[in-house]
Amino acid sequence: MYLTKEEELILAGEYGYALQKAMEILVALGDIYGADRLIPIKSAQVAGVSYKNIGEAGVEFLRDFVEAGAKVSVYTTLNPAGIGDDEFMEKQREVLELYRAMGIETTSTCTPYYGANLPKFGDHIAWSESSAVIFANSIIGARTNREGGPSSLAAAIVGKTPNYGLHLDENRKATVIVDVQAKVKTFADYAALGYHLGRTLGNDVPYVKGIKPESLDFLKEMGAAMAASGSIALYHVEGETPEYREAIADKVETITVEDSDIKAVKEQFSDDWSEIDMILIGCPHASLPEVKEIAELLRMRGRPLKIPLFITASRAVKALADALGYTETIERYNGRIIPDSCFVVSPIKGWYNGIATNSGKSAFYFRSFGFSVRLDDAENLIKEAP
Amino acid sequence: MKLKGRKVVGGKAEGELVVSQKPLSFLGGVDPDTGIVTDAESDIRGQSIAGKILAFPRGKGSTVGSYVIYALKKNGKAPKAIIVEEAETIVATGAIIAGIPMVQGIDVSKLKSGRKARIDADSGEVEVLESGE
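Above: the input entities. Below: the C-alpha cells describing the complete assembly.
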C-alpha cells in the first residue's frame, strides 16, 4: 500500500504512540485486503461501547489508549451502550468517559443519521454498527466497510481508512438479483424479508426488485435484519435506492422470494403471549415517526399494558419525543423510551424471558440468547398484548 | 521444515507450537485470565495458548475478540506469536494492539502441536525445528 510521507512518519512513531498504533492497524488491514492507499473519511461510528461486549479487556485498552494521547480527528459518534445493574452501569459510564476523552461525541446510537452524524452521497466513512453500515451504504449511498470496534477507532484517530471493499465502485455492484414475488407490505414483512435474505445470501450485494416500501423505516428494518442474520453490508432496491441504476454490471443469478419464505420466518418467531414478558420496539433505534406511531397505537388501545413496552431510540429522537408529548403518552400506558442504549448488548438475561418485537434483528439475537420471541407489527402487538 | 508467509506484525519468537485446524473465536473462546481455550467448537479446547506459538486457519466471531488478545498480553497469558492461513480484521488488530508477532499465508495443516518452531515475522518465515521425537 502506498503511504504519503506524513503517513510514513506517523507509522514510524513521530507523532506518538496512539497515532502510530492506529496507523499500524490501518496499514495491516490495507495490506490484508489489498488496498492501494489510505483515503480521508468524513465521519466515524465506533462499536465496542457496551461493557457487556468489551469487558475489562476493552476498558484496559481504551484507558491505555487515552493515556497515550489518542484523539479522534473526524466527527465520531458511538454505538449504543448497555443497561445493567449498578456495578455494570458504573463500568459503562467509565467506557463512555474514556471515549469522551478521545474527543468522541458520546451519543450512543445505531441510528447516528437521526442526529448529527449524517453523511451525504459518495462520502467515505468508517462505521462499525452493522445496521448503520448497511443504512449508510444502501440508503444514503455513502461508502463504508463493516468495521470492527478497534478499526473504526483507528480510522477516527487517523482520519483515514484503507481504500478497499465497499469504498470501490466495482465492489458495489449487485452479485444477485432478488425477485420478490411475495406480498411484502408491513414493517414486520420487511423485517422477515431482510431476515430471510441475510440467512439465504451470506455476504452478497443483493439487487431487490418487486418491493415498494411505504417508508424509510421499512428499508432501515429490512437492512438491519439482513446484516444480523447474514453479513450483508449493501443492497440496492430497484427504483428506490440511489445507486440501483449502476448496480447491475454482469449477468448475475436471480433468486425469488415467495409468500412461503416470509411466512416461514414469521412462524419461526411466533411464541405464545404466555411466554412473553416485554415488548421491544426500536431495533435499530426508532425514528420519530415510529415513536409517534407507538404513542397513537397505545392511545387507541386505551388501557395500559400489563407487560412493559420499551422503545430504544437515540437521545436526539427521545428529546424530540419528550418535547412533543409522545413520551408522556407512552409512559401513561406502561411504556418507556430508553435513550442511547440497546437490549441486545445488555446483560438482561434473567430480567426477562420472552420478547415481542417488530424487529427482525432483535428476533434473531434474542432467539440466539435463548429467549422466547414473537415477531409481528407494532399495531398487532399493542392490540393483542396482555 | 521451512514455510514462507507474509508479515502482519513484525518480530521474532521461538517456542512450542499449539495448532488448531479450526477457525478460532477469541471473544468467549479464550479465557483472558488463563490463556485457556474455551471455544466449544475448537479442537484445542482446554489447552493453554500462553507462551506458545499459536497457529490456526483464521479468526471468527465478534470483533471484540481483538480486545481479548490485548487482555491476554496484559495478563501475561498471550501467545509468543500467531500464525494464520488467512489474516482478518479481528486477529490482525488484536496482534497489533498487543504487539504480538504475526504471520499470515501459512498452511497450518502442515504444523503439529508440541513441535518447536522459530518465527521471523518480518521476513514471514516459520521454521519447524527438529522435534526430538
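Note for the figure: The radius of gyration of chain B is 13 Å.
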